[in-house]
Each structure stands twice: as C-alpha cells, then as structure tokens.
Specification:
Keywords: Hydrolase. By secondary structure, the chain is of the alpha/beta class. About 40% of the residues lie in helices and about 10% in strands.
C-alpha cells in the first residue's frame, strides 16, 4: 500500500500548518504508511517558519525539521494528492474547496476532525483500506450524526466571526495571542494523532 498524505493548510504556511505538520510527523512515526505535509492558500513560496514554532521543542530533530521548512502554495495538484486535508479555519477550507472542488468531502478543520473523530478506532478497522482513508470516511459519516463543533470550544481571543471549529491566526497579533493560537493547534493535532493510533509525548 502506498503512503497516504495528510495535508495541513492555513493561510501563509509559516505558523499554524507547519506546527501541525511537524507534530503529525512526530506523533505518527510509529504508524506505517502515513506522511504529513503542509501548505498555505496565500503562501509565498520559500518563506521560513515562524520563530515561535522553531522554539516549540528544544530537541535536535525538531530544530532541524523546523529550520528546513519553507512555505509553499496549496495548489490544486497538491490538494488532490491528499487523502485528508486538515485546515485551520472555515475561511481556509473555503479557499481550498474553491481551488480543488473535488476535495470537499475530505477537508475538515482541525477542530472538526477532533470532534468528528472521537469514536474512530484504528485497530478495529478493515485493513484493505489505508488508515487515513478509513479515518476520512469515518469523519464524513460522523458529520451527519455529531454535527458542528460545540461553541464551548471558543476562546477569549478569537475574532467574533470565528466559531468553535476555527483556530484563528495569531501570527503578528502579539506574543500571548500568538502562543494561544499555537497551543490550540497543539491540542487539536495531539487529539488527531491519538485518533489515528499514534502518540505525542
């Protein structure tokens, strides 16, 4: 079975989505057949990751991976390669679907994936389909049953137009807001990793 791609998408691909990508890589190392990448709907190709993401962990592997990151645009070709697309917010999801309408059914915000994937059991699923494809199918079916992300997930710093499924962009909004946004990325990504059978320390 070929490797399945989880693509994480935000706007600029220098903060939220690369943090989630690096966390997914780390947490799913022991789960065969899955790889993670990231991109941005408004990204300028070649920009470096934000320093706060680089400093998130102090081990050598994290430093090397974060230093090597360069932003890239989420074009239709890349989006179509992904078995699952996790986005930072509904606005980003709209841009993703506009660029590649056929990926609508496998595109979720990080918070939606956490909410819809709560009962996914990677160990009990049939093996003729990859783990990520099975997870994406589970999310699609659960969307009808579980509905929207509860409003209780809102945070004090989130813009008024954001709902419980969004992780707003904290980049350039001050250190506390920036860190709060990345902490939300950490929490959501950790939950997704666990749902997929991985582990983040």
């Amino acid at each position: 079975m070929s490797s399945e791609l989880i693509l994480v998408v935000c706007a600029a691909n220098v903060c939220r989505s690369p943090l989630a990508e690096l966390l997914l890589r780390r947490g799913l190392e022991g789960v065969p057949g899955i790889h993670a990448a990231s991109a941005g709907t408004l990204a300028q190709d070649g920009a470096r990751i934000c320093p706060l993401v680089t400093s998130w962990h102090d081990d050598e592997a994290w430093g090397a991976a974060s230093t090597a990151h360069r932003s890239r645009r989420a074009d239709a070709e890349l989006l179509e390669q992904a078995e699952l697309i996790l986005v930072s917010s509904r606005d980003v999801r709209a841009d993703v679907v506009l660029a590649a309408p056929e990926v609508r059914g496998r595109t979720y915000t990080l918070r939606e994936a956490v909410h819809l994937g709560e009962e996914f059991d990677s160990a009990s699923q049939p093996r003729h389909v990859g783990t990520v494809a099975r997870y994406a199918t589970h999310l699609d079916r659960a969307r009808v049953v579980r509905g929207a992300v509860p409003e209780s997930h809102r945070r004090w710093w989130r813009p008024r137009r954001a709902d419980g499924s969004d992780i707003a962009d904290g980049h350039g909004q001050g250190r506390w807001v920036h860190r709060a946004a990345l902490t939300e990325v950490l929490g959501a990504t950790t939950a997704v990793v666990r749902q997929l059978g991985g582990r983040l320390a």
